[in-house]
Design a protein that fits this description.
The chain contains 15 helices and 29 strands. The chain is of the alpha+beta class and 694 residues long. The longest helix is centred in the middle third of the chain and has 14 residues, at 252-265.
Length: 694
């Protein structure tokens, strides 16, 4: 983060830098002009509001967008991102996310929820002396200050050190230390000096609730030692609290009312007459534009005003003067969707009796040619057209996949072959192949020349050989994220040489290339990931998280950043040392299948904590996560498709046996269809609706 003396300097710097804009993920042009847009202009020109309204963007993502363009940043404790309290029930044994009584009224400020306290704030405002130099306000404190942020995050670094620096090297009085979710909620309902909202970490960072650094916070007035944060009864672990808290933020109830809270914090009720009506007026120095610091000539006076602003907190930039639009309600549910696993099947042969080892279902309507792509163990592939229907019920009643017509003739089958045979020591499996998000290219590994190769999905022609490893490439992974330049993607390759390489797939050049130019057939990797001592057998990558997880033949699994930094070593539970399958969820959980014994599953947090593990009676051959990572589907030699809940590995449903062992799995982009590749040479498509509740 940079702080410049004036706007003129900002303009000179922007002109000197490349045209980076503010991030194409927000739908804002990547231009120098965009870097100089005001917060309100950024809001108006972005596509995020429209995408959120249609349900394409989560509530969490949308709130982060609003915070970002309104000047809030993780780099500035005085203007840290602000999130709402959404729940009021922190005392019951269970939490029903469908019960509206468990949610906070998002149309009212936090200080108004308690009628008694509301009356006190109204009286303060009404009795204000008209001759006072300070304009009247309801709240003398703020919902977001650097002190509040540090108090929330006091158990994790670097915030603990920042807190000690603020407090002269000592932690706060134990009675004021954040130690309980219930107590914090009650305080901001009763104490007239506490109207704080939340920070994003309460929706994604379980580590903030545990005293893993063993800080000594003292003993409170009740004689209780302050250590880990006391959680609600309905959450047995910090991970479970974060999962349920995040689910509450994304619930139908919050989605239907979040725009009302946005009006208070970022919108037309932030200041002025509407703020007065809503009991939402804060100390005048908290508002942008109320003080012209450049006009204060006295440096001592200016510093005093700046410190006062920091002490009182800062209100975000106002983004709109009219009511924010509401989110569209979800599409109506039909009878079959009320029973998630009452599904319809569609199956057909792809390549005779040759096992299908990889399936991809890039079926989004934005893809030029939505299709289910299959690859068999003889390296024959098929591109089966996905037929969409505008009628929701019809698309669920009959999954529509049109078999690849090229397989009907010998000439057509020749255009569906992925080059020369794989190295004789390689057994083709799902991790040997990836299909790009637009269904235009297929990447394959396992070749004797230590390369992985790119093929056109239209003609089957070899388009690129990528070299970088010193031994046979054994596994590939692909992850696309719209935040990358031009919709590019990360490709990750693992090899018997015990290394993992990170590459960039260029949408512009339709090949593995450097970020700014095509490099022929020999591009350089973005990063070389080391740490394994044995052949790498499985990898996964998340572009949005910037993480790569990899497993070697005899373990362990390693977690790296996409830039090459080793973060964690994930060691299997008990005797588990042989990982076969890896998946990295959107929220940073790592799912690992081990081949030891009859099979084993384990799920870790991104920080290396083992959340759950379970022994299996069937060797898994395929795993597929749903979009949000809360559920996954498995299949293997036993021919059973099973649906699991991710965080606790709870088995939710087992489908009737298929007509062959399950070698590959994927889930369609719209999450309505599960596609399995079978050893019998068939693909099986199942209409599925993942449970709405965790």
């Amino acid at each position: 983060m940079f702080k410049f003396a004036d706007q003129q300097t900002v303009r000179r710097v922007v002109r000197a830098l490349p045209p980076v804009g503010v991030g194409i993920y927000y739908g804002i042009p990547q231009t120098r002009a965009a870097s100089l847009y005001s917060p309100r202009q950024l809001f108006q020109k972005s596509t995020m509001t429209h995408r959120w309204q249609k349900g394409e963007v989560s509530n969490f993502q949308y709130l982060m967008f609003l915070n970002t363009i309104a000047g809030r940043s993780f780099c500035d404790l005085n203007q840290y991102p602000v999130f709402p309290w959404v729940l009021t029930n922190f005392e019951s044994d269970t939490l029903d996310l469908t019960d509206a009584n468990n949610y906070r009224d998002l149309s009212r400020p936090i200080g108004v929820l308690n009628p008694t306290r509301h009356a006190q704030f109204l009286e303060r405002y009404a009795s204000w002396d008209e001759n006072d130099d300070i304009p009247p306000f309801h709240y003398g404190t703020h919902y977001s200050t650097s002190g509040f942020t540090l108090a929330w995050l006091i158990r994790v670094e670097p915030f603990a050190t920042q807190f000690l620096n603020l407090q002269g090297g000592k932690f706060d009085h134990p009675g004021r230390t954040f130690c309980s979710i219930i107590r914090s909620w009650n305080n901001c309902q009763r104490d007239t000096s506490d109207v704080k909202e939340l920070i994003p970490e309460l929706y994604y960072l379980p580590e903030m609730f545990g005293n893993s650094n063993n800080f000594t916070f003292g003993i409170d007035d009740d004689g209780i030692v302050i250590d880990d944060v006391e959680l609600p009864k309905w959450a047995s672990t910090p991970e479970e609290f974060v999962m349920l808290h995040r689910a509450a933020l994304e619930s139908k109830h919050v989605s239907a009312h979040l725009h009302e809270w946005i009006d208070l914090i970022f919108g037309f009720k932030q200041k002025g007459p509407e703020a007065e009506k809503a009991t939402n007026v804060f100390f005048h120095l908290t508002y942008e534009g109320n003080v012209d610091l450049d006009s204060i000539a006295d440096p001592i006076m200016r510093e005093a005003v700046e410190q006062q602003i920091k002490s009182f907190g800062q209100t975000p930039s106002q983004l709109l003067h009219d009511p924010h639009i509401s989110r569209m309600p979800p599409e109506p549910q039909n009878i079959e969707e009320e029973e998630p696993f009452k599904s319809i099947y569609l199956t057909f042969k792809v390549t005779g009796d040759v096992p299908v080892t990889h399936v991809a279902a890039n079926t989004d309507s934005t893809v030029p040619s939505p299709a289910v792509v299959t690859i068999s163990c003889n390296q024959c592939f098929s591109v089966n057209k996905w037929l969409t229907s505008a009628d929701l019920k019809q698309s669920l009643r009959g999954v529509q996949v049109e078999q690849d017509p090229m397989l009907a003739t010998s000439a057509g089958r020749q255009k569906r072959q992925l080059g020369e045979p794989l190295d004789q020591s390689v057994t083709p499996c799902a991790c040997c192949f990836v299909v790009t998000a637009d269904n235009k290219h297929i990447m394959a590994c396992g070749y004797w020349d230590n390369s992985f190769k790119c093929f056109s999905a239209d003609s089957g022609k070899l388009t690129q050989c990528v070299f970088g490893h010193w031994d046979v490439v054994t596994c590939l992974a692909y992850s696309r994220h719209v935040g990358l330049t031009g919709g590019d993607a990360f490709v990750v390759s693992g090899s018997r040489d015990a290394t993992v390489l990170v590459w960039r797939w260029s949408m512009r050049f339709q090949r593995v290339a450097a970020s700014d130019r095509a490099e022929g057939d020999n591009p350089s990797p973005l990063a070389i990931l080391t740490g394994h001592e044995q052949p790498v057998v499985c990898v996964d990558v998340s572009a949005s998280l910037g993480l790569v997880v990899s497993g070697s033949q005899e373990g362990p699994c390693l977690l790296h950043t996409t830039t090459g930094n080793l973060l964690r070593t994930l060691r299997g539970p008990g005797e588990c040392v042989r990982p076969r399958l890896l998946k990295l969820t959107r929220d940073g959980l790592v799912l690992v299948n081990y081949t030891d014994g009859t099979g084993h599953l384990a799920v870790f947090t991104v920080n290396g904590r083992l959340l759950s593990d379970k022994g299996l009676d069937d060797q898994m051959l395929a795993l597929a996560l749903n979009k949000d990572g809360n559920f996954f589907v498995s299949g293997g030699f036993s021919r059973y498709l099973r649906v699991w809940r991710t965080h606790d590995l709870c088995l939710l449903h087992t489908y009737p046996p298929c007509d062959g062992s399950i070698r590959a799995l994927t889930i369609s982009t719209d999450q309505r269809c599960l596609v399995a590749g079978l050893a019998s040479g068939s693909i099986l498509a199942i209409a599925v609706n993942f449970p709405g509740r965790l």
